[in-house]
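for the writeup, i need someone to sanity check this before i put it in the appendix. the sequnce is what the collaborator sent (i think, or maybe the updated version? ugh). structure was predicted straight from it, no edits. if anything looks off just tell me and ill rerun, i have time this weekend
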Amino acid sequence: MRSLPLPLALTARLSPVVVLAVAGWSISSGPAPSSDDDAASKGGGTPSASAPATAAASKAYAASPAPCGSVTAKTLKSLVPGAKTAGKEIPSTDTKLRRTCSWNALKGYDYRWLDVSFEITDSDEAAQKSYKERIAEKSGGGDVPGVGDAGYSVVNLTTEDKQQTREGVVIVRASNALIVVTYNGSDFESKKAPDTDVINKGAIKAAKEAVAALEGGQ
């Protein structure tokens, strides 16, 4: 079977990956905790015993899990037929806080691409702020129930040189962590893209497994 060059719409998918690799993700930092002196001056003595517990509760995750192990081989074979299940981890400026794995393959005329990214922020509040900003930038989607503390999914269709590409993005907040899954596909023979339901369900399935990997400490 003859090999086909990727259309510009798909090769352009590499650009965000390069940006992440060079610049890293920006992390929103929460307000600095009060010092012991401030706590003592307000309380007339030692800081409140509840303060350490609150700080611990606001940062449930200290590091990102290995992103290339966050989705099962069975799911990868289903979502990205022909791709190596080991995936390819994208270089990061701080692998403890930001990690991304990518899988892509062309099988016959069908092309699929999957990215799974993790970001660990300083607190629940910082993650919540970043989550709200991200979903505001991707309007037209909807909530995804039963995943993390909050989940959002959106699917868009683009056409370039008569070639359609449909891309789904799922953003999840789990405590002080953010998970972003990007899944897209094209059919080079028909010039059409997979159905919205196929892309959306695939992205959500990968997101649920990524959250499970985070919670399991993988």
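The helical segments are 8-11, 14-23, 36-43, 50-57, 73-79, 124-137, 196-215. The chain is about 35% helix and 30% strand.
thx in advance!!
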